[in-house]
Amino acid sequence: PIWKMLWRTGKFSDVSAQPMNFVQNGVDLKRFTIAVVDGKVFALTGEGRTNGGGGYQLACMDGATGKVLWKGDKLGLSAGAASMPYLLEGKGYVVGSIGDGSLYLVAFSLETGKPDWKVALGKQQGMQNNYNGRMELGTPAMVGVEGTMYVSTNNGALLAVNLSQRRIEWAFRNDTKPVNPNGRWNPWGGYYMTDEFEMPATLLLHEGTLYV
Asked: What is the pTM assigned to this prediction?
């Protein structure tokens, strides 16, 4: 088959200018992922992280044309989204932060990106500085069924959220991700820090049993 590019979000020539921005702004490359839901493309980007601040924005694009339908600044998460969206019963859900390490589950409209409601999930434990001296969140994962959303923070807890009552039903605490005791020197900030070995959280729901 002959492959033909249908659309793109930017110029290929712009890519060469990005690596230094990644280093200076502390961008986590693991966050750059995409998902497709009902003909819409959801992309988690580092567009909001300028001058070391801001968060990872969630953008929604038309899968056929690439036209940006909305961006995640409408979600009310000043530090941006931390997870890819999850679709359940016609509504979108995403986990994000307002900047102090506290996580929120936000329900939003897939059509407009406007938030409907949010639930505080608590503050992540064992957070570490990245190479730019800023705290990095874990990468949460979600799976939902019959009015309950299960959220693995990938940094300390597994939570069950009642979607109709908009509250946490139960929480299971677990060990945080391991760190390298040897650490390394940060040449930009001039301080000693530990390395983290983060693997993506995985949730699987099968016949009434939740596997993490």
From this structure: 0.75
